Fold this sequence. Notes:
By secondary structure, the chain is mainly alpha-helical. It is built from 4 helices and 2 strands. A two-stranded antiparallel sheet has the order 1-2. A hairpin with a 3-residue loop joins β1 (59-62) and β2 (66-69). The radius of gyration is 12 Å and the shape is globular. The termini are far apart.
Amino acid sequence: MTVITPSPTDLAVLRVLVDRAGKVTGRHDLNRLAGLEGSERRCEATLVMLRKVLGHDTIVTIRRRGWMLVNDAVPVALTLLDSYA
């Protein structure tokens, strides 16, 4: 089994999603709030990695609007964030 270690970027995106759990966050806001620079699509690669760590159903894609961390995933996400604090 491969252990996936989240990068600082991954953790920054996860913090934004946890803070906004249950709310849709668009690409522009996610990049801005997580402090991402460069490609507008950078957050998508990060979301793929976070889904591998948290589970595929934890981050929902809302077509043409953005992404949302489901409320049930918040405790696991907070544990992950705390383990890298």
